Amino acid sequence: MLTNGSYLLPSLARTSPLLPFFVKIPLPLIYRRSRRHCRSFLCHCTSFSFRRPLLDHISLGRSSMGRSSRFCTLALSRGTSAPVSNPISNKASKKARRESPEGVLRYKLDMCSKNGNVDEALRLYDEARSNGVPLSLHHYNALLYLCSSSSSGSGSSGELSGNGVLDLGLKRGFEIFQQMVLDKVVPNEASFTSAARLAAAAEDPERAFELVKQMKIFGIPPKLRSYGPALFGFCKKGEPDRAYEVDAHMVESGVAAEEGELSALVKVSSDAKKGDRVYEMLHRLRAAVRQVSEATAGVVEGWFESEEAAKVGEEDWDVNEVKEGVKSGGGGWHGQGWLGTGSWRVVRTQMSEKGVCQSCKEKLVCIDIDPKETANFASSLTSLACQREAKADFVRFQEWLQRHGPFDAVIDGANVGLIKQRNFSFFQLKSVVDQLRQISPSKKLPLIILHKSRVTGGPAQNPRNNKLIEFWKKSGALYGTPAGSNDDWYWLYAAVSCNCLLLTNDEMRDHLFQLLGTSFFPRWKEKHQVRLSVSTKGPNLHMPPPYSIVIQESEDGRWHVPTITGDDLETPRQWLCATRSRNTN
Questions:
Q1: Is 351 inside any structural domain?
Q2: Where in this chain does the record put each PROP1-like PPR domain (predicted)?
């Protein structure tokens, strides 16, 4: 609905005693791109009640100063114009911005965010408004973040604690979000997410979900954190169907649930006695998470120990269908539903070196990796490496590898030479090289990746070490990465492209490896990473397990769930083993 260029924006009709300000927030909020979206949404929201125009004469077009309009709490009067000033240097300009009232406020709010001080932030906000200081998107987001954090119980807030902080965060947070709209400051994903957290803290997941829907309609892609308040809120209130709606919206938006979300969905499904949904969520955990936290393990245990779990399951099933399901899924699961009848027996256990469950004696399987996936991963790895390394250097390495490869094993030289050592040890590295050569099918030396500085300086200058280095070089078994490079890219690419073993104790969890995604890389690492322990007897190699450390569903309906407790190197990994009295057909 449009009247004289003003938008009659909808407000949510339903009220909540904890949302005296929030219910007045006009949604949709100002859309920055075109009038068409506002018109289409107003038609879409005919079920909402409307109130008098709140934001009149909002310019949604491009301003002469840039691609989008910039809003603030103070507008220049029509009869004035900004004086023309002499050009100033960038340094002076930055200093002026920092020392301006807006810049000082930004710095102080950032400090409040860092320290979790909501009291001081609200005092600064009130002071700024009384002094007419314009507030930007950054200011509002800092305030909303602090209010939502205090409402959810995280962070500190000066002298207030407990319910006082909660009520203060809720009331002022809703008030600030409304003022942000009144000031014509266009919200972004962070603004919406903070508002959704406020709604969840007020035990109103419905409102939180509505905010996420608004984001999508107005072209702001929701993130996983945007959905959390609604999803966890519905799960906490025991509303599984509404939680499934949020989950479906996430899938539609291309947002993948992680362990926390899937664990919550397992629990709400278990509590609601929805066995088919529990089954679905366990398989999603298998695909997305592989090893579960102790908290999730407790949720899974709770399901198998429940009365409802004992009731679900097929007593007579088609063995051929199950086998076909295992084959089509790549092994380790069949997806045909719960098999067997009767109560479940759930125990914590361990696997033998060969992958045999110490409780039920089931042998776990090793799930194969599609060669096409490996080739695609190597291609994406090359692309990422060339973006972050000097392209000419990395291409030179690829050409070198083509000439000297393939290898049966690749060694992260820096990592191996420093394990349990104060200084880099070529003696330890040589011992490991010899061990890998002995177990190599071709008896070929493994590829050693070392930074150039370690090949030419420090312990490398020792005559004995220098002789060893020259031998490795002449054998085509040593590659020195150039100055300024990250050798992680080199040893990882070499191992992937050769499809061989990789010796490193690097857990590969930092930013570089996060770029590689969470689907293929953990599976590849599990099947190819060799780890090293060092004792008084020397270095010991720990080969990849002959089974996949992932949730497995056997052909007779047993379940094995690996946890993150234990690392199989110093402490055996803990598994959940779930069997029932009738797991045979």
A1: yes
A2: 94-310
C-alpha 404/C-alpha 470 separation (Å) is 16
Q: How far apart are the first and last CA of the chain?
A: 65
Indicate if the pLDDT at residue 37 is higher than 60: no
Phi, psi dihedrals of residue 529, rounded to the nearest 5°: -80, 125
Among 427, 436, 507, residue whose Cα is nearest residue 459: 427
Q: In this predicted model, what pLDDT tens digit does every residue of 70-102 receive, in sequence order?
A: 333 333 333 444 455 556 678 888 888 888 999
Q: Tell which of 317, 333, 362 closes a domain.
A: 362
Query: How many other C-beta atoms are found inside a 10 Å radius of the C-beta of residue 75?
Result: 10
Considering the domain architecture, whether residues 323 and 415 belong to the same structural domain is answered as no
Altogether, the residues listed in the chain come to a count of 585
**Into how many domains does the chain fold?**
2
Judged against a pLDDT cut of 70, whether residue 462 lies above it is answered with yes
Q: Is residue 247 within 8 Å of 279, Cβ to Cβ? A: no
Asked if 232 and 204 touch (Cβ cutoff 8 Å), the reply is no
Alpha helices by DSSP H, listed for 152-237, are: 163-182, 189-201, 205-217, 224-236
Nearest to residue 431, comparing CAs of 416, 443, 421? 416
Do residue 526 and residue 406 come from a single domain? yes
C-alpha span between 283 and 461 (Å, rounded): 55
Whether residues 425 and 295 fall in one domain: no
Residue 25 lies in a domain: no
Alpha-helix runs per DSSP H in 292-439: 294-304, 307-311, 319-329, 371-388, 391-404, 413-418, 426-439
With b meaning 16 or more CB within 10 Å and e meaning fewer, what string describes 240-267? bebbbebbebbeebebebebbbbbbbbb
Q: Are residues 355 and 385 in the same domain?
A: no
pTM above 0.85, yes or no: no
Integer Cα distance of 463 and 8 in angstroms: 83
What is d(CA 581, CA 315) in angstroms, rounded to the nearest whole number? 11
The domain of 337 spans 271-362
Pairing label, strands 6-7, 10-11: unpaired
Picking from 362, 397, 428, the residue at the C-terminal end of a domain is: 362
User: What token pair was written down for 331?
Assistant: 């092994």
- Whether the CB-CB separation of 411 and 491 falls below 8 Å is answered with yes
Cis omega (within 30 of 0) on the bond before 406? yes
294 within some domain: yes
Residue 488 is encoded by which pair of tokens?
A: 């992680």
Whether residues 355 and 395 fall in one domain: no
**Cα separation, 542 vs 89, whole angstroms:** 60
Cα–Cα distance measured from residue 443 to residue 348, given in angstroms and rounded to the nearest whole number: 41
Same domain, 307 and 424: no
Pairing of β 447-451 and β 478-481: parallel
Say if CB 478 and CB 450 are below 8 A apart.
Answer: yes
Peptide bond just before 28 cis, omega within 30 deg: yes
What's 454's domain CATH number?
A: 3.40.50.11980
Look at residue 141 and give its three-state secondary structure: helix
Both 456 and 494 in one domain: the answer is yes
